[in-house]
Design goal:
The protein is an alpha+beta fold. 18% of the residues lie in helices and 38% in strands.
Length: 268
């Protein structure tokens, strides 16, 4: 991943944390899910998280840190902050700011628009009429995927657990004054997933860390999630992109990949 990302889908997805997406790729590319050894209480916590995130509309914010090695093996860190608004089944708005600039992602149920705020360059792509269908097309066409997408699918718990072979609780910690369950999952061929969810009926995710043990220098992705709001009522107009004066349209080019987007565990 370059330290300076140009205006393309990879720019937004890098901002969201390029890593695995689980269930988004499951339907098309997995022959059969692996046998799982996940404790019942841990599975129940993830299922409850999935129920909360299946709400018709909600918003949240996140701070992410992407750690990877450059061509010389030097570890680099790319930070982003984002605001996400979801209105199921076919509306999504994401504002990302970070070390490689600011990006706005707008999905209105028919078209996905990616806008580089600093460069005033934007691209659009016709997509399916569901959030999950849109994500599948974008990732499949451009060969990228990202872990926070699991939270946006039609079945967040199934998306997160797809490909996972084991899961257990590590301990209870406090994040921003809220007791949270620290859960640890493994996914072959060498992905380690740590998820912190609130220890209550909502089980909202508060932190996610993905570590790639099978890759050189063990790159990782860290996300802190906060300001969850399930009382929002976004209007259709919030998901309509109006190009600012002077904005330039650019073409989105598919990634030069030989295979479609993979589940969690694909190369970041």
């Amino acid at each position: 991943m370059p330290t300076k990302v140009s205006l393309k889908v990879a720019a937004l997805l890098a901002g969201l944390g390029v890593a695995g997406v689980g269930g988004l790729a499951a339907a098309g590319y997995a022959a059969s899910p692996p046998k799982q050894t996940i404790s019942e209480d841990v599975r129940a916590a993830v299922v409850q998280m999935g129920k909360s995130l299946s709400a018709d509309q909600f918003s949240f914010q996140a701070r992410t840190l992407r750690v990877y090695a450059d061509t010389n093996g030097q570890p680099l860190h790319i930070a982003h902050s984002m605001k996400v608004i979801v209105r199921r089944p076919d509306k999504l708005l994401i504002d990302v700011t970070g070390d490689d600039g600011s990006t706005k992602f707008v999905y209105d149920g028919k078209t996905m628009v990616l806008f580089g705020v600093d460069t005033k360059r934007y691209s659009s792509l016709p997509v399916p009429n569901t959030i999950q269908g849109m994500l599948e097309k974008v990732m499949g066409r451009f060969g990228v995927d990202f872990p926070l997408a699991d939270l946006l699918t039609s079945s967040p718990d199934k998306s997160f657990l797809f490909g996972v072979t084991s899961g257990r609780e590590v301990n209870i910690v406090t994040i921003d004054g809220v007791p949270c369950r620290h859960l640890l999952f493994s996914q072959p061929p060498g992905i380690e997933l740590e998820l912190w969810v609130e220890k209550n009926d909502r089980a909202l995710p508060r932190r996610l860390i993905v570590t790639y043990r099978d890759l050189p220098d063990h790159p990782s992705f860290v996300a802190e999630l906060f300001d969850w709001n399930f009382s929002i009522h976004p209007s259709d107009s919030e998901f309509v992109f109006q190009p600012p004066e002077g904005a330039v349209v650019v073409e989105l080019k598919p990634a030069a990949t030989k295979a479609p987007a993979k589940p969690k565990g694909s190369k970041p």
